[in-house]
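Z., the sequence and structure:
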Amino acid sequence: MASNKFTVLLLVVGLVVGFAFGSLSQSGWQTMYNQLYKDYENLQIQYTTLNSTYWELKQTVVEKAFLLEDSEYYVEAYKLIKNATDMVYVIMFVVKFDPKHAEDPVNRLLKALVDAKNRGVEVKVLVDDETLKSYPQTLTFLETNNVKVKLDPSSGVQTHTKMVVVDGKYVLVGSHNWTESALSYNHEVTLEIVSEGIAQEAIGYFNSLWENGRTLST
């Protein structure tokens, strides 16, 4: 009889312990799930932040940067414009088109701009009043070939910038004007930068001048 009572007691204790263990186990799993879900949400936030930072760094990183000395500039500028697929923005103090010399390097650059425009590339050229004053044939050539061209925002402020931006990635900035002497004979130096981030800054600078630029009739 005592043995039966002990057996019953063990069964009762087992049931109680089993029930308690089952309850604790379920509660433990719920707690663990809640913690893991919170960790997952935190990881998602961290991933979003890191991903955003990654793309910001990717845009600002300079992939390449090198000097173009003397006539090297012309070769590289011509290649970039000839291969452009999206956009070419030019800010230039002086651009000298020479209708008497077809093979003048400036003529070839300007012809490359026209060809780029004709294949659907967005081409814009902004120049200082010095180009209008000294080389009006340059502006006539661009306008005749339907290339968008403007003077800088004010005749009272000289735009001495010499910058070319191609396809939102390539930036040429330095001392080279678009004249035969600068492209062929002078000692000049320009930095070529391959960087989406810097190109975007350069485009922003270009647009700040272009938006307030003067049409040739003004």
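The CA atoms of residues 92 and 162 lie 5 Å apart. Residues 2-60 form the longest helix (59 residues).

Let me know what you think.
H.
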